[in-house]
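User: Hi! Is it possible to get a structure for several chains at once, not just one? Here's what I have:
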Amino acid sequence: MSTLLITGADLAGSGAQDLLVEDGVITRVGSIGSAGGAEVLEADGLVALPGLVDLHTHLREPGREDAETIASGSAAAAVGGFTAVLAMANTNPVTDTAEAAERVLDLGRAAGLVDVQPVGAVTKGLAGEELAELGLMHRSRARVKVFSDDGKCVHDARVMRRALEYVRAFRGVVSQHAQDPHLAGSSACCHEGELSGRLGLPGWPGIAEETIVARDVMLARHTGSRVHVAHVSTAGSVEVVRWAKAQGIDVTAEVTPHHLVLTTDLLAGYDPTFKVNPPLRPQEDVDALRAALADGTIDAVATDHAPHARHDKEHAFVDAAFGMLGLETALSVVSDTMVRTGLLDWAGVARVMSSNPARIAGLEGHGRPLTVGSPANLTLVDPDARVTVDRSASLSLSRNNPWHGRSLQGAVEATVLRGTVTARKGALA
Ligand code: DOR
Ligand code: ZN
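Assistant: Yes, the chains can be modeled jointly so their relative placement is included. Here is the combined structure:
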């Protein structure tokens, strides 16, 4: 039997306790003191959270193993405090069949650092036309419950309606990248506003996101099914989600760490590190997103970790790939932005980074309270540590890190997956 004793951890802000883990399960909580032969993890002064769960990770395998592999992305996730990640379907080939989903699952298990749960594509090849094998993916060993064409919007309302009807049967969910392609030109690459005009960059208006969110919550109501809004980026989308929840519509939403902090002003230097889809928005949107995360309108933080190789990112702004790294910095960004400012307490962080995403994704072993009988998936955080982000220290294969050089308060100290320490102080254990 393997035994792990975690001493003196503050359980999501509710007081210091010891935790005994036997064979991957929490078997005692309280004042334990010592346990003969157990591996000991001293956690005095640290906050213990249920293991973080990321609803939105791009791992690039198969197809772009130069940018990230399932193993390298899993390592970055473990160091970032995650015990489970949902791997987006926009790989090459796309995860649109049962076999493809099982392959992602198996590669995740082989890496063995976090639970890698494949997201299935909504449409074949992400082409937006024909539904992918939703039922077969769900019935496969991968038990896919979350479907998304992320990177692209399921923009045909008829296709979206069918997908919602289909997943309703097994309580699946469609995670929508809300962006009407007809309201945003195909060359759009930043927020449409005064600045984009000055910079001469074609922009996406917030309304391109908001109209799809509004349409989709109505489709969710009509079908009695469940929709999740990926990376909400505007105050208007927040308003729609708030309204829909008040009506009892089954909608959930996520926000990325970058949309909680970074604004469109960063584009003034044309640095493609800050090119992301949906784009960075003005401060008013950032403020609305923070408030919505604090009041529960937005359910979860999801990274949209989007690694890109140098030769795809280091281009003129208009030609560079969309996306930024996020797994290793997410907890520090949320701590610095939401906890240090008093917008969320640690129980709130546990909710938005673990229990809510686990519930949305239907991941049973994750997001559980740190009580006797729960699987020992947990993250230890030093709330007072100051970190200066260094992109060269990353375990990701890519370097498109928008946080490079920033000082943030709060850091992951250790990650435990079913009783096994997977990472400590920024390195694999
Ligand atoms: O910035 C982004 N990058 N947004 C997306 O929706 C897709 C992602 C990617 O796959 O690179
Ligand atoms: Zn997306």
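Residues 17 and 83 are 21 Å apart (CA to CA). The domain at 3-47+374-428 is CATH 2.30.40.10 (Urease, subunit C; domain 1).

User: Great, thank you!
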